[in-house]
Design brief:
Layout (H helix, E strand, L loop, with lengths): L4 E13 L8 E13 L3 E5 L6 H8 L7 E6 L2 E2 L5 H6 L4 E4 L13 H11 L5 H14 L16 H13 L5 E5 L7 H18 L2 E6 L2 H7 L2 E6 L2 E7 H6 L4 H7 L3 H6 L33 H5 L5 E4 L2 E3 L7 H14 L1
Parallel strand pairs: 3-8, 3-9, 6-7, 7-8
Antiparallel strand pairs: 1-2, 1-4, 4-5, 9-10, 10-12, 11-12
Length: about 325
Amino acid sequence: MAAEHVVVIEDLVKEYPVRGADDTVQLVALDAVNLSVERGEILGIMGESGCGKSTLAKVLLRLEPPTSGRVEVDSEDIARLTKSQAREYPRKVQMVFQDPYAALAPRMRVGAALEEPLAIHQIGDKPQRRQRVEELLALVGLDKSLAGRYPHQLSGGQRQRVNIARALALDPEVLVLDEPVSALDVSVQAQVLNLLREVHQRLGVTYLFISHDLRVVRYLCERVGVMYLGSIVEDGPSEAVFASPMHPYTLALLHSIPDHQAAEGGTVSFRLKGEVPNPIDRPTGCAFHPRCPMAQAICTLQRPPLRPVGGKRFSACHFAEDVPELGRQLAQEATVS
């Protein structure tokens, strides 16, 4: 049976006007993104800061309208929802934000914060909603006594657990997690990641997990999408991507991790050239070519499509099949040095 896609994104573009510039000048935050997410899947989106990860999340949450392209959730174009469908949309897609304290109203007790979405969507009566609050607290490993506390009376890990519980209150189909553990201590990060795994196993909710921390993505996610300058440049099963990247940008990201360097036998010499190009003035052809050690003439002229390269993997590189060999050469050089 073919896998069911709960989210389908086709040629998604998101542009922003540049203050003080001509109307024709636009900052391109998302550039022809194509992505699909299977129901119940944990998909990680990773890349450098400014690559478009959070903008993708905002469009999926309907916080930002797309400039062009199409985003479907449950086969419905989210840009064309009726008013009644738009009111019900939060019951399909919810968000866990990066800062666990800023995401909670400081003057609202935990119980009230968890009950609020139930009241807004008229789910149950008062006793039923209170019972649901206790169930949610238990689901994220918190005692029901915490319902009477304010956010400042909780630890960072407890606050993020409350945010996860609130996002789950409406039984959403998709949970968007934007850097959900980056503001937490390392020991607490591990606890929250384990909680997310347990919740996924129990409820089967679909995760779109956004992070710049590659180790976190590798631990939690079944599949990875790598973003560079607003586009998906590699997509595939997590273990396969981490073991043998098929885009030079992914390879460079992996070699920026100290643990990965140690596993390869030493300090790897692979470094990107220059800085991320200005999204207002994007390079022609492949957007990555000014920094790519494999770039050739065709890379400056033709933008490579995100194409299948075998084993449920996709890469937007003219020379994707040569990238694994480059990785092996770098590993050998590191071992010799």
